[in-house]
């Protein structure tokens, strides 16, 4: 049986743009396992898990995860990493797609993997989404936020 660290390292290998095996990645999870994108408050289960991988790789087809530190503590594996890639696909947003910019991303990330009996029970990804957005030219729209707050306080 593989160690928990080996299972997690295999998950990273399967999610590389050059490999991208969503079904293999999903097979590492328990039946009710979850992939939690913490900054965006999204949870993926079952068949959604490989779809989430494919969706990200569709935007950044050369996605690579540079593992900086990997620490296994019983059934928990903590990883510090950088998610890297090139923005070559449409980036979906609630108001439309951001066209490909060709910009490189290098996003600081911390992942917590919880395993049970050699399978991933939950994968919590804490990526710096604000850094990713800034790197593809989608910085915050402070003017809209200020206008909305002013309208809410003045009733206008």
Describe the structure.
The structure is a single chain. The chain is 31% helix and 40% strand. The strands form two sheets. The protein has a six-stranded mixed β-sheet with strand order 2-1-8-7-4-3. A two-stranded antiparallel ribbon has the order 5-6. It is of the alpha+beta class. The radius of gyration is 18 Å and the shape is globular. A hairpin with a 4-residue loop joins strand 1 and strand 2. It has one domain: Roll (Nuclear Transport Factor 2, Chain: A), CATH 3.10.450. The protein starts with a helix and ends with a helix. The chain is built from five helices and eight strands. The mean pLDDT is 95. Residues 21-121 form the SnoaL-like domain. InterPro entries: Cyclase_SnoaL-like, NTF2-like_dom_sf, SnoaL-like.
- Counting structural domains, the number is 1
Q: Give the helices and strands as they follow along the chain.
A: HHEEHEEEEEEHH
Q: What is the C-level CATH assignment?
A: Alpha Beta
Report the sheet-strand fraction. 35-45%
Shape descriptor reads globular
Radius of gyration: 18 Å
How are strands sequenced across the largest beta sheet?
2-1-8-7-4-3
Helix content: 25-40%
